[in-house]
Amino acid sequence: MDNLVLISAEAVSAILCFVLVRFMIKPYRFTGESRYVGLPLGFAFLGLSYLFMGFAYFSGTLIFIEDMKWLQLLTQTFAFAFLAVTYYFSKRTSKRKRLRWQISFTALIVGLAISYLIVFVPPTFVLPSYKTVDEYFRLVNILLVSYISLHALRSHTMKPDPKTLWFPLGYVLLGFSQYSSLVWSLDSSFTALIGAHVLRLAGLIVFLVVSIRTFTPHDATKEGESI
Amino acid sequence: MKIYGDILSILYHETKKEKVVLTQVQLKTNVPYDRLKKYIDELKELGLIQDEPSLQLTTKGQQYLREYQTVLDFMERMGLMYKKGIPQTPLLLK
Predict the structure, then answer these.
(1) Which residues of B are less than 8 Å from A152 in CB distance?
(2) How confident is the model at residue A117 (pLDDT cuts 50, 70, 90)?
(3) Per residue in A83-94, pLDDT tens?
């Protein structure tokens, strides 16, 4: 029963992320600037990570579970890394910044490929236990999401408007979800596990509602209107 | 793509005045005059602007600008701080 709830939560999270990719690709398509490609990539990887975790809960084979968990771990951290790098390079444009973006983006792709090779392709290295690596990766995730939240909140404080508050809130919820996952990893508290899933779903729903509200034409749209 | 949206946005505001002065558009877009002329020609070819009776946005251009503004609004909501100085066109968002 518990497994069914967890599988459902992972499946819903994955679906929400894949729907969000449709909205996240628009800044890149409309501006034609490659630095925004990290947004759809980030949410696509996030969706994949939830899908892998869902498979891990679903699978009955122990080896398969471990593989899926490692895949989830790597994919999720790189998803947050793509988003954080996109936010970092969104500040201003210059030839130097574009070059730095291209180097960072390439480094992320290469890093991701190397990580997968190290974990899955023989000869496999002797790695620390999944639990230990998971804790460190959660910490990295918290740092990355904190950076994104602060960046988004900074934009809000520069131009205070209720409509620019929702996305930072979504990121903060994702950050707390990661913290809750870390607590669960440390003390196996069931409440922390459920909390992590609820917070994550809440964050993703906030993103989805804001995206739909922004892109759905409605007559009442006026200057300064907020969701 | 981005520069097209910026030029259309500025043109939309400039057409409220009696006559569109390209120098004003050039100053606001910060693009050299010869390149601006090239962009204007491209926008005409795409059917986004017309110069009869005066330089102004076509219906297709207004539709493109509306979508462009929606994407900018989305990016602002995301906290991406995409741009400063280019006028927003709330009337078009109606």
Answers:
(1) 78-79
(2) confident
(3) 999 999 887 667
List, for residues A120-168, the tens digit of each pLDDT value.
777 667 778 888 888 999 999 999 999 999 999 988 888 778 888 899 9
The answer to whether A167 contacts B79, with C-beta atoms less than 8 Å apart, is yes
Peptide bond between residue B32 and the one before it cis (omega within 30 degrees of 0)? no
Asked whether residue B91 is assigned to any structural domain, the reply reads no
The reply to whether residue A27 touches residue B71, judged by beta carbons under 8 angstroms, is yes
Read off the CATH number of the domain in which B71 is found. 1.10.10.10
Cβ-count burial B61-70 (b if 16+ within 10 Å, e if not): bbebbebbbb
* Token pair 């462009």 in the structure block, residue: B68
Q: How many domains does chain B have?
A: 1
When CB atoms are compared, the residue of A27, A91, A153 closest to B75 is: A27
Whether B20 is covered by a domain: the verdict is yes
| CATH assignment of A2-215, among 1.20.1070, 1.20.58, 2.60.120, 1.10.357 | 1.20.1070
